Amino acid sequence: MLERLSWKRLALELALCCLPALLLSVFLGHLPWFLLAAVAGLLIWHFHNLLRLSWWLWVDRSMTPPPGRGSWAPLLYGLHQMQMRNKKRRRELGSLIKRFRSGAESLPDAVILTTEEGAMFWCNGLAQQLLNLRWPDDNGQNIQNLLRYPEFSRYLKARDFGRPLHLVLNNGRHIEFRVMPYSDRQRLMVARDVTKMHQLEGARRNFFANVSHELRTPITVLQGYLEVMQDNEMPAALRDKAFGTMREQTQRMEGLVQQLLTLSRIEAAPALSLTEEVDVPFILRQLECEAHTLGPQHRVHLDMDASLKVYGSEEQLRSAISNLIYNAVYHTPAGTEITVSWQRTPHGALFSVRDCGPGIAARHIPRLTERFYRVDKSRSRHNGGSGLGLAIVKHALSHHDARLDIESAPGQGACFSFLLPLRRIVAPSNRIAH
């Protein structure tokens, strides 16, 4: 193992250099001149090695230092070892930075690193997509210049980072910002897209408001009649009418609760196996009889393939089909014809309900599957509609890889249809086996 560079080694090197001068001076004399020449040679040799070291550090910059002898050997070896350690540390640091960036890229949130003054020096891909930042083009830019929102600037200047900032961007997205100290005079900024949560919260508020509104009317009617019955003696005819109205309102509340339970059950249903064989023609024949009972003056025409069965959930498909047929009965004038079709097509099993009603304006069609949405609110309530039928249809069909298609125009009736994919159709061999 090489010795460390020390004053003893340098002194020994100087002594060995002067020894030949001493020997020559014994025979030839002129000791000072020989000593001067020996020291000058030693200085020239050191100067030559110093030039080689400078060339290696600033010009050559290779990993292997030049070979050295004497006192220069441990020095060059030590420099080489220090360079190798620094290289290893840089490699470890690079790997650490790479792992950090890889982890930050996999986060479901936008991540931005800034200085305490707000200068951005890194951001992940989601931050570029969500906040329209550019990396590395925006390196060094102040984050307040990139996100020009007064609320955002006030939040950073207030330095009260114990609470998040809820910000609505120009594109309508709702973003939640959190800022945390990251390192010495640096900040870690996390931005999360909470648009869906905001929409769900709004839908929840609207849902409860709509349910309260739907239940308020029948409860008010029942309460009013009960107060009248309690305070006054009512004639038999008026009492019978009151009881009839109270019964209708009770049935209306019961129907609303049943629809809510059905919708909740369908929405909360886990992934279904959909291996149950559903006899849709049998369901249609039953619903045809019920439709005649609900609307005896309607003409219901059934056009179906009696052998066409499908795989799925019988409960959900029955709910979807019955709601579409009942809607046609409720919302079309008496004496009109309703055509129910169930046929095989090259793309799957097609179900449709076509009526000759007043039709639906184009602006209403995209919202028909929303909960409690009605085109004609007064008429729907008069018919006992809850506004949940098409929402039930939408969720039931989504479990069967299908969607509801609506074609309608004012004065031209409406057609509600859905297409179950070919893989849902029960093959003839399977039907014979059953």
Number of DSSP strand runs? 12
> How do the strands of the widest beta sheet line up side by side?
2-1-5-4-3
Most strands sheet: 5 strands, antiparallel
State the share of residues found in helices, binned by percent.
40-55%
What is the CATH homology-level superfamily of the largest domain?
A: Histidine kinase-like ATPase, C-terminal domain
As for the CATH topology of the largest domain, it is Heat Shock Protein 90
Tally the helices: 13
| CATH top level label of the largest domain | Alpha Beta
* Domain unit count: 4
Based on secondary structure, the structural category is alpha+beta
- Residue-averaged pLDDT, rounded? 80
Distance between the termini: 88 Å
CATH A-level architecture of the largest domain: 2-Layer Sandwich
Write down the secondary-structure element order.
HHHEEHHHEEEHHEHEEHEEHHEEH
Shape: elongated
Q: What is the beta-strand fraction?
A: 15-25%
Poorly predicted residue ranges: none
Organism: Tenebrionibacter intestinalis
GO biological process, one term: cellular response to phosphate starvation
Subcellular location: Cell inner membrane
EC number: 2.7.13.3
